[in-house]
Amino acid sequence: KSANPQWREQFDFHYFSDRKDMLDIEVWRKDNKKHEELLGTCHVDITALPIKQTHCLELPLEKHPGSLLMLIAVAPCTGVSISDLCVCPLGDPNERQQISQRYCIKNSFRDIKDIGFLQVKVLKAVDLMAADFSGKSDPFCVLELGNDMLQTHTVYKNLNPEWNKVFTFPIKDIHDVLEVTVFDEDGDKPPDFLGKVAIPLLSV
């Protein structure tokens, strides 16, 4: 019940290529669980923003009254990566040694925010549910840790997909939970849910 809401939420999005990208933003109004109304949209051309700077933007909503006030910072990705299994970042003995030194006891208080990182190898799934009429699925896997989200490629027409990808996340809160969800790609429609597992970091 506010025409001037304050959210103060922070979201991280990751780029791994130089493609041109737009940040699309929608503002919605909810009366209850069933009724929703679009209050406006706006777009930000990320490629037009200088990197390593925080930009304060007031974005008017298209075809609707009102505007959004946002802080957007474009910065190089640190600690987040996707790689193939054969070039696993921790496979190099020299890198392992550097990691061990970085997180040894004597360096514990050098950077309080650098809690550590999580490396996940997504190998394969077995006996997935068939979501298509053909008796197959087009599965892909989404990994979420805090507000970081990465995903595998889609393996088409397969109930036993092999992804063989390595994902690296920076850890911001040791109490976070790694959520791994498998979806079926469905063209232009929203993907179908095929299953999920949640792994608390403290259990690793």
UniProtKB/TrEMBL annotation:
GO terms for cellular component: synaptic vesicle membrane. It is a multi-pass membrane protein. GO terms for molecular function: calcium ion binding. It is found in: Membrane. The keyword Transcription does not apply. One of its GO terms (biological process) is regulation of neurotransmitter secretion. InterPro entries: C2_dom, C2_domain_sf. Keywords: Calcium, Membrane, Metal-binding, Repeat, Transmembrane, Transmembrane helix. It comes from the Eukaryota. Residues 1-59, 93-204 form the C2 domain. Its main location: membrane. The keyword Transmembrane helix applies. It holds the Pfam family C2. PANTHER family: C2 DOMAIN-CONTAINING PROTEIN, MULTIPLE C2 AND TRANSMEMBRANE DOMAIN-CONTAINING PROTEIN 2. Belongs to the MCTP family. This is MCTP2 protein. It comes from Polioptila caerulea.
